[in-house]
Structure formats: structure tokens, C-alpha cells
Amino acid sequence: MASDAKTRQFEYGGAAVDRISSLPTSLMDSILERLLTDDAARTSVISKTWRDVWRMHPRIHLDENLISELVFEKFSELDEHTQLLELSRTITDIFSAHRGPVLDFLLFIPENLPIHQTLDMAIWIRNISDSGVRKLKLLNESLFNPFIVPSYFFSCSQLTHLTLVNCELNPPFGFGGFCNLISVELKYVAIYADMSLGTQLKELDMEICTGIEHLGCQFNCENKVTSLRIVDCEVIYYQWFECIQKLQVLELGMNELPSTGNQVITLDKLVHNMPRLSSLFLDGFFLKILKPGAATFMRLSRTMEYLKYLYLHCIELYELDQSQHVLCLVRSSPNLQLLKIDLVHGVQSDDDVDLSDFVVLSDPMILSRLETIMIFDLVGSLTEFQLIELLLVSSPSLKRIKLKTHTMKDPTDVFRISQEVEQIPRASKSAQIQWM
User: Fold this and answer.
1) How far apart are CA 336 and CA 317, in angstroms?
2) pLDDT tens sequence across 91-123
3) FRET partner for 96 with CA separation of 20 to 30 A, picked from 23, 349, 388, 413?
4) What are 190's strand-pairing partners?
5) Which of 213, 220, 201, 108 is nearest to 162 (CA)?
6) Strands (E), 254-306
7) Distance between CA atoms of 32 and 42, rounded to whole angstroms?
């Protein structure tokens, strides 16, 4: 016991010396930033100094781990209604003990405990709104109980980073946008009125959202958006891409074909106003709604000279239009460094597309900087072998090509595919084929 005591405290003249409470306040803040909220709160029992530092610490993260710990360790024997009340009361107590402004707030709402439906939730949001919150994450896992964001949330003028999951946004009339917002992530969010996220916005991520047409005013000639992700939303508004010249990262994806009333444009027109694009993510469903356009000629009218990373998901090479779009994108990206293609298992033989019909000898494809190729879910079709050959003979700097066959393929077919790929000539002598 004596040795244990010595490890817990230093002694000087028989009295314990509290060395950590004499640390500079800035260092204490740095320590608290690296702790979970409940661990940071426990430091308040060390001394009055630590208690005062924690009360003024600007971050409160009520994440999934903390909420689960409270529910399963402290309230596990209670019924769900009582758990809800106790959890809400505990969070309120945390706010009551906190004295300083909350600049960084995260709240996880469990699927079976919709704490956002309690009256206390309004108090918490009011609290952080009044304290000038800058980073806010509301992660609502209770999918059938969306959180209706209160009107006073739109007065958070200091907000810089926002993440909302399963929420409803209905901005008050005349809302002019946020002044300092630079990053927004929305998932399962419904927007019910026209609104702006502000002129400083640089990153916008929307997944499975509705009402995104209300953000149309965000995309004007003065917008500063550099990263845009729109996945599985109702519709994609192509007019947004006319004023998006600072864009560097773009991801577009759909989980099903859109209704017939939606707009369709060419691949050429889609990326024409993105001269700085460095990373592009597209899926097969999205490619299906594009008109062939420039893809017929295998090269975009404007070369994507800054594009380094190209990711194509759920691609059906046995469909003519998709094969053309793939070739067009690759051929138009002379500085491409990484190419990843996830294929969809489809019909072979008679439905194969012969890529040799689109290879123009007078206009060879040169990918002088391509270092990594990844193609997954191969089935051994003619189109696949032709694509791999075209890439290998066009990439003198290639270091590795990672391939993976479809999980349903027979081992004999897998061996045959690997043997045929090994026989394909390569422009790079150092290129290694890796099977995943």
C-alpha cells in the first residue's frame, strides 16, 4: 500500500504536493481537450483549480460512448421512459455545472431514447446558441423522430462547422445565412424553406436529404465551395455546377434512377466549369442519366489537368454509355495518379462491349503519372480485359494494379482470370499486380 501511495502523490515534509494543479491554464485546457467529456468532468474533483478550468472549458461532447455508458451502467434497470428522463436530467446537470461559453458541442441521440423530444433540449440549444457556439454536431439516431431545429439556432452567427443527422430545417423568413460557416454535413435532413449557408462555405456534404433545392441561392458566382458531396438525394441540380469554379473535390451518387422529369446534361457540360477539380467520385446510376455527348469522342473538350484521383462506383462496363464515360474520363485526365473502379457483376458474352472500337490510334491515351489502379469485382469479361490492357499499356509510371474478382466466382475462373491478366503487356516494368 505504501508503494501505491507513493505512485499517486509526491511527498514533501510529510504533506502531499499537488503538482498538476500548478500547471498553466493553457496546458490544463490542452489536457481537457484530449479527454472525453465525462473524464474531463471528473478532473473537477482534483482541486478547485481544475474544477474552475473544467467549468470554463469550451467543449462539451456527449458522444455515443458517453451516452451508452450513462444508459447501460447507470440507468440499465430503469424502463425506457425513466431512462429518457434521467438521461435528460444528467445532461442538464452538466450544463448547469458549466460556467463558460460552449464553443464546441456534440450530442448523440440514441435510437430508442429520443431525448430531443424533452423540454430540456430547447434549453440546451438555447444555451449553446447564446454562448457563440462554433462547432455543432447533432447526431440523431432516432430515425422516426427527426429533430426540428428551433428558430433561434439560425442566430448562431459564430458557427463555423455544422453536422446534422435526421433533422428538419425551416429557417425563419428573411434569414440571410450564416456569417462564418465553412463546413456543413447533412444526413437525413429535410429543408423546408429557401436558405443560404453563408458566403464563407467551403465544404458541403449532403446524403439522403430532401428539399435541397432550397439551397439554390448558395451557388452563385461568388461562392467559395471547394468540396461538394451529393449522395442519394432526391435530385441533383445541374445549374449549381455553372458557378462552381473553385471546386476541388466532387462526389455525386444516386441509389436509383431519377424520375423522367429530371434534367440531363452531358459529362462534358458537368465538369466544364471545374478547372481546379482534383478528386472526382461518380457512380453508375449517375452516369446512366448523362447524355453521351463528348463521351462519344472519348475526350472532354476541356482537359481535367488537375485531376489526380478518380473513383467510379457501381460501374456496368457491359453498358455502352458507361464504358464510353469511363474511357472519356480517364483519357481526359493526363495527370491522374490513382484510378479506382468498382464494377457491378453483369451479363457477359453477347453483352460485352468491344472497347477496341473506341481506341483511336492517332489519339493514344497517355497516363504518364498514373501510379495506382484498383479494379474490383471482375468476372473475366472481354471488356474488362480490354480495359486493363488499355490502362497498362498507357501508364509508364504505374507501380501497382490491385484487382479483385467477384465473390461468387469459381476458384477455377479466378485462376484463369489471374493468368490472363499476368500475360497483358505493361508500359511500366516495375508495375506489380496485387490480387485482393
Assistant:
1) 20
2) 888 888 777 788 899 999 998 888 888 888 888
3) 23
4) 168, 210
5) 201
6) 279-283
7) 10
Would you state the pLDDT for residue 130? 85
Which is nearest to 375 in space by CA: 333, 413, 347, 417?
A: 417
Give pTM, 2 decimals. Answer: 0.84
Residue 183 to residue 200: CA distance in whole angstroms: 9
- What's the DSSP call for residue 45? G
Strand partners, 141: none
pLDDT digit string, tens, across residues 289-311: 887 665 556 778 788 999 999 99
In what helix (H) or strand (E) does residue 244 lie, and over which residues does it extend? none
Q: Kind of pairing, strands 15-17 and 10-12?
A: antiparallel
pLDDT digits (tens, 9 = 90+) for 319-374: 888 888 899 899 999 999 999 999 987 555 456 777 776 666 557 788 999 999 99
Q: Work out the percent of the chain whose per-residue pLDDT is above 90.
A: 38
Cα–Cα–Cα angle for 65, 66, 70, rounded to 5 degrees: 120
- pLDDT higher than 50, residue 400: yes
> Which residue has 461568388 as its cell numbers?
222
Strand-pairing partners, residue 138, are 107, 164
d(CA 137, CA 86): 22
pLDDT of residue 335: 95
Mean predicted lDDT score pLDDT of the chain: 82
Q: Where are the beta strands (DSSP E) in 268-381?
A: 279-283, 309-315, 338-343, 372-378
The residue whose grid cell reads 486493363 is 388
